[in-house]
């Protein structure tokens, strides 16, 4: 069973990767033999079929995991992997509404990154703590993820819009900011890559320090640039001759894992910048300029509508899962439907953000460029809530 | 006074953008003929645009602005987010926030405290923001929904060709007067097959579907208003809201604070997962709790006789609260408390145990009379023992035993032991978790800890929240509104033939792509294929 679970996840990853390649081929290839249009259609179909096979295998993975552990959305690995699933599923829905092959060339790489990011976290099936033992766990988390999946597709469409728009307005501030977004995405890629590289090297280091008077040991799986506050090295593999942390984190950084998390962030930023520099030096263009040929044939108005449509689908689902179901469950488990827990607050922030988006769009006529920026911003808020709040701000929802 | 009479002869109220009757744009200033028409609220004048005199009107105008609403949303968003930078007052392990934030987080923590962000969700500013959002929801909705309702109800089939030709989706075709009748019939037929409601007026068609989705946002707003109203009620009506915690030991019966109920804790337990259920190297360690449970009986007190009558019996588990009437009891805390210690008194000279006695840590006796005339007196008792350093007046430093609380977390005793045959009574020290053999080595009688008597304590959250039905009803209504508004769309198609020209225009509140495809399909089936792609405009 465990074998089947591992294989299904691996093949899912592989399908998403192949689907990415198919979609990129569909948009970039000239199709000199059959003509551009036929080429795009054929490869687009291959891409969507692969994505659908991937989603089907992803379902197999989820089913097997539920059979083994009884649940599939209780920790970071499970949640991010499921979010990846909902992104691809939302994309498939949007694809059949709008038949846009180009969107696939952007959504599928995102799903590959997401699944890679998910597998950086511990993958064991953990038993559920009492607070999570409820059927609401599945109802609440799946609805939230479905909503966020659709909102993520809205983000990707917004990004496509920006790349397309910037192609016609190269000297704008939007161009600069778009490049910053590209660099940040590379940082996430950098994090996934460094995690895998150091994981493959089996890098180990541990440091002893105290949290609220108790001695704890932090295990590092990446070389320590930032060490714990007043920490002592227990054991550390040498990395480029470096054995001790370069600096210690300040004392106000909370939580027993704060140093390790900050260290991961530093590695992500550094590796992302390295990737960015290498890419820039190889292609001798900005990243968005590299991507522009993929989108230059698109109609701006249609891309804008796809982004809005995805958000219009995602917003009610997110409201249902992230606020309504969340409140019902919070009342059952904790005796109050609202408790100002950071996760709850950020769900509210996400909801307020998209509410502002909708009002700007419907009443203030924020279409196109501004709307696309807000779609990007909304996804940043979602990422803050799924990742930053869990890893940095401690609270009731810190399940990873 | 502006001239608001349209060419078609209809008199419109001041502030009208599109003629109520024929749809022709009225306000020529700021209107760009090359752009599609602004179809918001059907171009109707809203109350906020027509009345601008009294204070009431000014307040109305302020809250009716979507711009103001967006600002309110954004400010609430920013404040909410800022509130998560550092833990809120309720989450800090200290009841002195003025010291805590500065100490833990330095300058920024101090600033955080001084700006009031440490308790932002309870702050007057935040509550005022939520209240303003509530007012804005009411006024914005009323200001728009009434004119919109009137406009959609009194729609004219015959619209000005200018109105039709300036829709975002539009085509103008030359059609001879011989062809037009049959073509109009076919178009009406095809649109009807696509579930449009069709109205004909001479050479004009109005096809419409999904109008009810226009009410979605307003229904959503009603739900939100109801939600906020429920939250307001729970804090303003006495007895509607109760939030207390009660700690009950096994075997104990306690009054629920503020209520006429009593709870008895029959048995409290915590169950751990077996070690094979936990994966190797789990970050949670090897002790993961599987279940917290309190077997409880709820009693109601008879006000006259004072008797307790059992009203509910059952177990309280996390995620499965006990509910009776309006009261809900939640398992929220579990701990094990040492109630008593059992001590052996050993005669070290004869090396045998003389007697065994139990000391209740919450209420120790002054004196314990044991076998063979042995008498143990409690000279001093520190339930939560600690040593405090003090400097005497002569400059010497000494350590003084103190107790940090009245809870027996680390009980310490000074006993006096007297027995026949002892020249003078012995002093015996006992501090839990500390080996004091050195201190007591002169003594003939030694105190040995035999066992600890522990008891499980359940922390139960006691809740009454009578506004919950209103709050959740608000949530449900809000969801219905959202689904109506986002998963359906309002589409209208205007067709008009006039003097050899066929005008087709269409409007939707969302999903233009779908509308275009639908029109292309309908026109194709009406044997008059037209393209409505955006480039064709």
Describe this structure in words.
Chain A contains eleven helices and five strands; from the N terminus they run H-H-H-H-H-H-E-E-E-E-E-H-H-H-H-H. Chain A has helices at residues 2-28, 36-69, 76-98, 101-118, 136-168, 173-201, 258-283, 287-295, 300-334, 342-363, 368-391, and strands spanning 205-211, 214-220, 226-227, 232-236, 247-248. In chain A, strands 2-1-4 form a three-stranded antiparallel beta sheet, with no helix packed on it. In chain A, strands 3-5 form a two-stranded parallel sheet. In chain A, strand 1 (205-211) and strand 2 (214-220) form a beta hairpin. In chain A, helix 5 crosses helix 11, helix 9 (300-334) packs antiparallel against helix 10 (342-363) and helix 9 (300-334) packs parallel to helix 11. Chain B is an alpha+beta fold and 537 residues long. Chain B folds into five domains: 1-32; 46-152; 163-210 and 489-536, Kinase associated domain 1, KA1 (TATA-Binding Protein, 2-Layer Sandwich); 241-278 and 286-337 and 459-477, no CATH class; 339-453, no CATH class. Chain B contains eleven helices and 20 strands. Chain B has helices spanning 47-50, 55-64, 66-82, 97-114, 124-153, 161-165, 177-193, 216-236, 437-440, 468-487, 512-525, and strands at residues 169-174, 197-201, 204-209, 241-249, 253-255, 261-272, 289-301, 308-317, 322-324, 327-347, 352-360, 367-369, 375-382, 385-391, 397-403, 412-418, 426-431, 445-465, 491-498, 501-508. In chain B, the strands form five sheets. A five-stranded antiparallel beta sheet of chain B has the order 1-20-19-3-2. The chains are: A mainly alpha (400), B alpha+beta (537). At the A-B interface, helix 9 and helix 10 of A face helix 3, helix 4, strand 7, strand 10 and helix 10 of B.
Percent of residues in β-strands of chain A = 5-15%
Can you count the helices of chain B?
11
Helix content of chain B: 25-40%
**Silhouette of chain B:** elongated
Class based on secondary structure composition and strand pairing of chain A: mainly alpha
Strand residue content of chain B: 25-35%
Largest sheet of chain B: 5 strands, antiparallel
Oligomer: heterodimer
What is the helix/strand order of chain A?
HHHHHHEEEEEHHHHH
Radius of gyration of chain A: 22 Å
Please provide the count of β strands of chain A: 5
Question: Strand order of the main beta sheet of chain A, please?
Answer: 2-1-4
User: Overall pLDDT of chain A, averaged?
Assistant: 87
Transmembrane segments (chain B): 68-86, 125-146, 218-237, 468-488
Organism (chain B): Melghirimyces algeriensis
GO cellular component, one term (chain B): membrane
Pfam family, one (chain B): ResB
């Amino acid at each position: 069973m465990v074998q089947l679970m591992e294989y299904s996840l691996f093949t899912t990853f592989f399908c998403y990767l192949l689907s990415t390649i198919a979609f990129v081929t569909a948009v970039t290839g000239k199709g000199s033999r059959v003509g551009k249009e036929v080429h795009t259609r054929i490869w687009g179909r291959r891409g969507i079929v692969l994505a659908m096979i991937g989603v089907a295998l992803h379902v197999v993975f989820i089913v097997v995991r539920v059979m083994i552990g009884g649940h599939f959305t209780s920790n970071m690995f499970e949640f991010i992997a499921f979010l990846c699933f909902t992104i691809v599923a939302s994309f498939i829905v949007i694809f059949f509404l709008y038949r846009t092959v180009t969107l696939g060339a952007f959504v599928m790489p995102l799903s590959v990154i997401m699944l890679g990011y998910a597998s950086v976290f511990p993958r064991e099936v953990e038993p559920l703590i009492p607070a999570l033992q409820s059927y609401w766990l599945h109802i609440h988390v799946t609805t939230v993820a479905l909503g966020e999946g659709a909102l993520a597709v809205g983000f990707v469409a917004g990004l496509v819009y920006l790349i397309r728009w910037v192609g016609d307005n190269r000297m704008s501030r939007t161009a600069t900011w778009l490049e910053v977004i590209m660099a940040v995405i590379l940082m996430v890629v950098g994090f996934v890559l460094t995690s895998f590289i150091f994981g493959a090297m089996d890098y180990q280091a541990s440091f002893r320090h105290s949290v609220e008077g108790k001695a704890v040991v932090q295990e590092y799986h990446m070389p320590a640039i930032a060490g714990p506050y007043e920490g002592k090295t227990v054991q550390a593999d040498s990395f480029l001759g470096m054995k001790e942390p370069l600096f210690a984190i300040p004392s106000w950084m909370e939580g027993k894992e704060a140093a390790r998390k900050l260290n991961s962030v530093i590695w992500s930023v550094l590796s992302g910048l390295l990737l960015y520099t290498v890419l820039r030096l190889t292609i001798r263009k900005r990243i968005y300029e590299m991507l522009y040929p993929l989108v230059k044939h698109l109609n701006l108005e249609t891309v804008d509508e796809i982004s809005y449509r995805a958000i219009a689908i995602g917003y009610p689902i997110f409201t249902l899962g992230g606020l309504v179901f969340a409140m019902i469950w919070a009342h059952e488990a904790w005796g109050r439907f609202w408790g100002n827990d950071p996760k709850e607050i950020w769900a509210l922030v996400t909801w307020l953000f998209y509410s502002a988006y909708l009002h700007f769009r419907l009443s203030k006529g924020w279409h196109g460029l501004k709307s696309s920026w807000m779609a990007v911003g909304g996804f940043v808020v979602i990422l803050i809530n799924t990742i930053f709040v869990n890893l940095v701000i401690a609270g009731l929802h810190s399940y990873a | 006074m502006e001239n608001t009479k349209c060419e078609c002869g209809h008199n419109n109220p001041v502030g009208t953008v599109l003629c109520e009757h024929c749809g022709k744009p009225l306000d020529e200033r700021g209107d760009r003929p090359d752009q599609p028409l602004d179809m918001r609220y059907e171009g109707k004048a809203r109350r906020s645009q027509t009345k601008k005199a009294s204070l009431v009107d000014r307040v109305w105008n302020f809250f009716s602005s979507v711009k103001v609403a967006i600002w309110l949303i954004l400010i609430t968003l920013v404040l909410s987010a800022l509130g998560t930078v550092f833990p809120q007052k309720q989450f800090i392990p200290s009841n002195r926030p003025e010291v805590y934030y500065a100490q833990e987080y330095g300058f920024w923590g101090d600033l955080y405290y001084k700006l009031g962000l440490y308790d932002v969700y309870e702050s007057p500013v935040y509550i005022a923001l939520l209240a303003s959002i509530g007012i804005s929801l009411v006024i914005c909705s009323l200001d728009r929904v009434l004119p919109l309702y009137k406009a959609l109800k009194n729609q004219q089939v015959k619209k000005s060709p200018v109105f039709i030709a300036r829709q975002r989706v539009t085509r103008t075709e030359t059609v001879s007067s011989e062809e037009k009748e049959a073509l109009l019939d076919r178009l009406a037929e095809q649109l009807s097959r696509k579930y449009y409601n069709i109205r004909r007026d001479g050479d004009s068609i109005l096809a419409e579907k999904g109008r009810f989705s226009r009410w979605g946002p307003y229904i959503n707003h009603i739900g939100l208003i109801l939600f906020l109203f429920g939250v307001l009620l729970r804090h303003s009506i006495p007895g509607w809201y109760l939030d207390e915690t009660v700690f009950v030991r096994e075997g104990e019966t306690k009054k629920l604070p503020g209520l006429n109920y009593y709870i008895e804790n029959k048995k409290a337990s915590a169950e751990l997962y077996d070690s094979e259920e936990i994966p190797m190297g789990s970050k949670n360690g090897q002790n993961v709790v599987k279940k917290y449970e309190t077997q409880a009986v709820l009693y109601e007190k008879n006000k006259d006789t004072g008797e307790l009558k059992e009203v509910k019996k059952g177990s309280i588990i996390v995620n499965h609260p006990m509910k009776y009437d309006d009261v809900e009891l939640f398992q929220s805390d579990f701990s094990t408390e040492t109630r008593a210690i059992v001590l052996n008194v050993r005669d070290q000279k004869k090396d045998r145990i003389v007697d065994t006695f139990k000391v209740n840590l919450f209420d120790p006796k002054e004196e314990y009379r044991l076998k063979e005339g042995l008498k143990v007196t409690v000279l001093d008792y520190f339930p939560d023992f600690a040593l405090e350093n003090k400097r005497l007046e002569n400059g010497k430093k000494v350590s003084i035993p103190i107790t940090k609380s009245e809870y027996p977390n680390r009980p310490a005793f000074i006993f006096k032991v007297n027995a026949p045959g002892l020249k003078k009574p012995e002093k015996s020290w006992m501090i839990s978790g500390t080996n004091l053999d050195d201190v007591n080595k002169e003594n003939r009688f030694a105190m040995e800890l035999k066992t600890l008597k522990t008891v499980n304590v359940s922390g139960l959250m006691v809740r009454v929240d009578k506004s919950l039905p209103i709050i959740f009803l608000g949530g449900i209504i809000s969801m219905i509104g959202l689904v109506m508004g986002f998963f359906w769309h309002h589409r209208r198609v205007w067709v008009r033939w006039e003097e050899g020209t066929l005008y087709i225009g269409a409007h939707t509140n969302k999903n233009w792509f779908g509308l275009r495809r639908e029109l292309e399909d309908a026109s194709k089936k009406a044997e008059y294929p037209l393209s409505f792609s955006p480039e064709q405009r």
